[in-house]
Amino acid sequence: MDSQIHKIHQQLVNKEFSCTNLVQEKLNLLKQNTHNTVNNLLDNLALNLAAKVDAKIANNEPIGLLEGIPFGIKDVYMVQGTFTTASSNLLKNYKAAYTATAIQKLLDAGAIPIVKENCDSFGHGSSSENTIFGAVKNAINPDLVGGGSSGGSAVNVAKDYTVFSIGGDTGGSVRQPAGYNHVYGLKPTYGRISRYGLMAYASSTDCVGPIAKSVGDILIVLNVMSGKDAKDQTSYVSEAISEESILNSTDIKSVGYFKSFIESEAIDSKIKADFLATIEKIKAKNIEVKELDFFKSNILVSTYYTLAMAETASNLSRLDGSNYGNRIDNKNLKESYAITRSENFSEETKRRIVGGNQVLSQGFSDEIYLKGLALRDAISDNFEKDFKEVDIIVSPVTPNTPPKIGNSLKDPHAMYLSDAYTVGFSLGQLPTLTIPQGTETGLQITAAKNNDELVLKFANFLKDTI
Question: Which of 3, 173, 302, 418 is an active site residue?
Fold first, then answer.
């Protein structure tokens, strides 16, 4: 199975190059890059850790598979002692007091963090343009957006500035930029990886997700980060997925896809044609393919944003400059809160807070929020029915190709609709992987809850099939 991590590990063991040289090379690339992927370089920390790996190798001590591997971190994760800005003006000088559980597990395995990566502020966006560090530029065409909100993470992997990166996926924020930049991006089953230390956007769908260039690397990183965490009550015990199990896909007999996605007027004609051609290639491998009925994409987007805005309004109510953040004092406490939030939040963040507060307000919560919760339950029920009929669901990642930088900021509604094919799987809390094949913005592979292994199996199968 292809794996850049395995390859670099062996090269380090063979002393083909030093860990210090490897890390310095990646840091130099990040310093020189013009894609606006960097919020903060962790050069001192990274080089100190690299020196320790080199010392072990020089002493002929064994090193772990991830030991010495440089990786990036979306700037919404706490890493003790480092700037953790969420690409926002409010937190531009904030240093984390602790480290997120998922990141700590990678550190414990010896992986070396080298950069905090640019993203949409607080994860609010689908283009990585809502950021104080400048719009992230697409790895393939810098005139286009890098995708969002984990745009910096996806571009860094695509450009080989990091071996892998850790993004965050709420409604498609790992999968969509992975598709835009032709790399792999996984949203695991909700709860498989602890969310502790990830800045909350919408708590009921937030997921920690790896981005890499191969299924093998996704598997390695997923196994390290997974597991129960006492600090996150939604996390659960999960068994490691073996490489051997991924190589055997004979238990995948049937695949489904949603007619409503492909028949939508919003889908780009080439993405539609490429997707249907991919379906034919899957059929040619004697796998049964079924059309499935599902909610229309505009219902999925409306349901997701109703709930996500409500949750973000609640989660961000704590950010008023009192305990942390860029406080702006005014004539009294109430005015200080108001001006701090008004001046420091991006327009998109303010839009979501206002929308969320309206959804939760008296007179609207029964009419809007509770209906959204009911629709989410109906969506989950629909998925349970679907996975009694098929083993895997495949879908395009996005209905359209990446827009030019600036277009999404002019039309927030169009930006929300770019999530049309990702948000449903988030509402269902299902494991979903973007692969860089099948359409111009990739293909999305989804399985039933807790069946992350099947997703990786089918991705590995498709690598040589389409």
Answer: 173
Query: What residue ranges do the domains of the chain occupy?
Result: 4-246
The 10s digit of each residue's pLDDT in 116-138 is: 999 999 999 999 999 999 999 99
C-alpha R_g of the chain: 21
Token pair 């002019």 is at which residue? 410
pTM: 0.97
- 173 catalytically annotated: yes
> Looking at the chain, how many residues does it have?
466
Give the Cα separation of 77 and 225 in Å (integer). Answer: 14
Is 331 designated active site? Answer: no
Q: Given 74, 137, 213, 457, which residue is catalytic?
A: 74
Residue 418 CA: distances (Å) to CA of 184, 208, 298, 403: 18, 21, 11, 10
| Cβ atoms within 10 Å, residue 441 | 29
Ramachandran angles phi, psi of 419, nearest 5°: -90, 10
pLDDT < 70 regions, the chain: none
Q: Give catalytic status of residue 74 as yes or no.
A: yes
CATH fold for the domain made of 4-246: Amidase signature (AS) enzymes (3.90.1300)
pLDDT in the model for residue 323: 76
The CA distance from 45 to 179, in Å, is: 31
